[in-house]
Structures are given as structure tokens and as C-alpha cells.
Amino acid sequence: MIPIRDNIPSRTVPFVNYTVIALCSLVFVAQLRDEDGAFLIERYGMIPARVLHPDRPVEIVDHEFVRTPFGIQVREIRREATEPAVPPWQTLLTCIFLHGGWMHIIGNMWMLWIFGDNVEDRLGHWGYVIFYLFCGVVASAAHLLSGPNSTAPTIGASGAIAGVMGAYLVLYPRAMVLSLVPIFFFIHMVVLPAPVFLGIWFLLQFFQGAFAVTNLQNAGVAWWAHIGGFAAGVAIAWILKNQDVTRPRVDRTRPNTDRMTHYRIHVRRTGE
Predict the structure, then answer these.
(1) How confident is the model at residue 182 (pLDDT cuts 50, 70, 90)?
(2) Cα angle value 204/9/189 (rounded, 5°)
(3) Number of domains into which the chain is organized
């Protein structure tokens, strides 16, 4: 499911949300300009084994394709990781500003664009700064605990954004999300209640995370970072909401919201 937009207007300009998106984008540009693409990732990414054992060297396993008489084969290359630019425990925070590719950063920033402005509207600018960074650190810690011996650098804002999504679920339980849902040869535009959209998203993360724990060959996605960030966002938003320290909820939806309908676009088998 890909969210297109929600029906909740924002009363304030989400300066912090825009700044986070801009900062992550600038860091990604720096990664693209880096001749050694892994240099920034290893210096600022969170490597669980290095955080828990900062005095021990960390061995990174790279893979390269080698042409042999028997065809293309994959060869492992083991080397020592680049020294971190900050104390290892601080990489729990710095890692949330790095991304691994175009789809990674576009997907993350799009989700933040959809849900972040409304959460910032309820928490206030400074409150949103603290909330976002805290969820990011909790997400990194959740991934650290799920794989304490991992030597793979962990990067991405997904955990912090999962916290934003968790807070959105608590703060806007009646919101509607226009979503793109591909089913077989059709693309459906479906209006879903926010609890349904976010609930399905969380269940997918949970089952993928449970599978990753029992499966040695996982996809390299920090599923438990998503779960930890989401849980932190739900808990913090619930506490703040019940303590009446958030701004009042916006009840008036955007104009023409009621006209959100179910669209279907036929996709030919040829891909046209």
C-alpha cells in the first residue's frame, strides 16, 4: 500500500518536517558524491557489534561478482570496517539520516511528508523535534537488541518515521488515507481509515520481523527498528494525549474529502 494523501489539514507550516526531509536529502546527495559509497555509511551508520563492543575491531563482509570459466560467481571479501566518526553509541542517532538508495530515501521521505506535518501540528515544532529524534534512537536500539552481533551497518529514517506513523494513529484515529493498492493487473485507489492502513502496515512489519529472527537469510531490512519506532510513537502520543498537552485535534477535513472514491486503473499484461 502506498499512501497518496490524507484528509487532515495542518494549521501550521511544518518547518521541522520540511527541515528533516531537506537534511536527509542533503546527506543523501553527499553519499552520492562520495567516491567510496560505503565510507559515510560505515562512519555514521549503526553497527550493533561495534556499539556493544567498541574496543573490538569490526569485520565487514563485502560481495563482488567475479567472472570465471564456470560463469559469474559471488566472492566474499572480508575487511575491517572504517573507524566511526563519532562514539559508537552516538550512531544510534546519526544513522537515521543516511539512506541506502533512491527507493529507500524516496519511500521514507514520502511517508514522512504524508504523516509528519499533522503530528508536528499536534506536538508543536520543538516537541516534534524531540519526539522524532527519540523515536529514531528507540528504533535503532530495538534493532540493536534484535541482532546484537550483527556487523552490517544499519541506516535509514524508517524507524523514526514509524514513530510518526504510530503517533498519527493515536492522534488522528478518524482520519482517512487515500492509498494506492496494486492487485493483480489492476491498480486500485482506495480510501482507507487510518487505523486500517497503519494497522496493516504494522502487522506486516511484525510478521516480517518475526520471520527475520528465525531466518538466517533475511532481506537486510531492520524490521524491529520499524516495530520499536512505531511502538514508541504510539506510547508517547497516548501519554501526551491523555495528559492534555497536545494541541486540539483538527476535526474539519479538507474540502471535497467526501468525494474520495474508489478508482481502478486497468494495467495491460504487456505493461503498457
Answers:
(1) confident
(2) 45
(3) 1
The DSSP secondary-structure symbol of 88 reads G
Query: Per the domain annotation, does 74 fall within a domain?
Result: no
Q: Which stretches does DSSP call E strand in 51-156?
A: 59-68, 71-80
- Cell 537515521 found at: 96
Contact 206, 188 (CB under 8 A): no
Indicate which CATH number applies to the domain containing 32.
1.20.1540.10
Contacts of 244 (CB under 8 A, 6+ apart): none
For the stretch 197-223, pLDDT in tens is: 898 888 888 777 666 555 544 445 688
Q: Is residue 217 part of a domain?
A: yes
Question: Contact, 58 vs 47, CB < 8 A?
Answer: yes
Kind and range of the H or E element at 180?
strand 176-183
- In terms of Cα–Cα distance, which of 4, 247, 244 is closest to 114? 4
Domain that holds residue 139: 2-56+86-266
pTM of the model: 0.82
The answer to the question of residue 66 being in a domain is no
Picking from 153, 155, 151, the residue whose alpha carbon sits closest to that of residue 59 is: 151
Residue 68 covered by a domain? no
